[in-house]
Design a protein that fits this description.
alpha/beta; binds NADP nicotinamide-adenine-dinucleotide phosphate; Rossmann fold; globular; four-stranded parallel beta sheet; two-stranded parallel ribbon; about 15% strand
């Protein structure tokens, strides 16, 4: 069973199951759209909302293994706790959880609290602590890059070991299929730690157009995003992610991804090449 099936990792993870012909349940608040998205007989689409306990039974009944994400938009921890308790009640015993790099140093993070809860509730778990996704450049920066030729991220000189979410999804697939040891934590990073100045250089080289890193302050960034119509909550979470980059929390490089995939993780230039058209006006 996959939560966040329509997100970047969830979609790439679903593709693995579909490709291998393995039946699975895709959970989403919008099951009709999700069924259409995957359009495959092996996909059972179910309506699931962390914040609506009436959806728990149909989601978890008959499920033994769960891929768990924590949606960025979720304000409180309680729905995650309710969900995990329900999953346990309905017989889920293994959980692969998508967490964030260096969560062990950020006890205030909901992700860290969820990690502890998984252990406390006695699940057989695998925790994937991922660095910043390369896909975030598409999700949040595409318009700035395409139309204004700037990279507008308040990360100062901070470096990040960007990971392609397709590599996270592949690791999650292997974990769900029992290819990894239980009760393990993996650090999912790329092989380079890059400042946003470097990212702008790689973007410029790959798309053939000069991209400038504007290095805004957190305040300027928040103002811009609110002006664009993003919610207070979402903007604050995003600004906090970039502040953690600025403070060096996602600069660490680990060999875990290479070990679990038995190949090198994708480099940023490969990701940009694969999505070149999306970055060009
Ligand atoms: N982005 C990064 O760089 C990065 C790096 C490391 C870790 N992470 C972690 O990865 C997780 C996913 O992040 P993301 O940015 O890819 O996606 P996201 O925008 O946080 O979440 C997307 C998914 O969450 C589902 N969702 C949202 N609210 C829901 C609800 N109330 N009930 C059920 N499902 C709900 C959505 O499904 P529907 O809309 O179909 O319901 C969608 O599939 C987060 O915990 C994030 O911290 C992200």
């Amino acid at each position: 069973m996959i939560t966040g099936a329509t997100g970047y990792v969830g979609r790439a993870l679903s593709a693995w199951f579909i490709d291998k012909g393995i039946p699975y349940r895709a959970a989403s608040r919008y099951p009709i759209e999700t069924k259409e998205l995957f359009n495959d007989l092996n996909v059972e689409s179910v309506r699931f909302d962390f914040e609506d306990s009436s959806t728990y039974q149909q989601t978890f009944e008959g499920v033994k293994t769960l891929f768990l994400i924590r949606p960025t938009v979720l304000r409180e921890l309680q729905p995650m706790e309710d969900t995990l308790r329900a999953a346990k009640f309905f017989g889920v015993n293994r959980v692969v959880f998508l967490s964030v790099l260096a969560s062990e140093k950020m006890s205030f993070l909901p992700h860290r609290k969820i990690e502890k809860l998984l252990i406390h509730l006695g699940f057989n778990y695998t925790i994937l602590r991922a660095s910043l996704f390369m896909q975030d450049l598409l999700k949040y920066q595409q318009t700035d890059i395409r139309e204004h030729h700037v990279l507008n991220i308040p990360a100062g000189l901070g470096e990040t070991s960007f990971i392609d979410s397709r590599d996270v999804a592949e690791t999650a697939f292997l974990s769900l299929m029992g290819k990894h040891y239980s009760n393990e934590v993996y650090k999912m990073t790329g092989k380079q730690s890059l400042s946003m100045y470097h990212v702008a250089e790689i973007l410029s080289d790959e798309i053939g157009c000069k991209i400038i890193y504007t290095n805004p302050t957190k305040h300027q960034f928040i103002k811009t995003y609110l002006h664009r119509g993003f919610s207070n909550e979402y903007t604050a979470q995003l600004a906090n992610v970039y502040t953690s980059v600025k403070n060096g929390f996602s600069k660490r490089i680990s060999l875990d991804t290479e070990r679990t995939l038995q190949r090198e993780p994708r480099y940023l230039k490969e990701f940009i090449r694969d999505h070149k058209e999306a970055f060009i006006e």
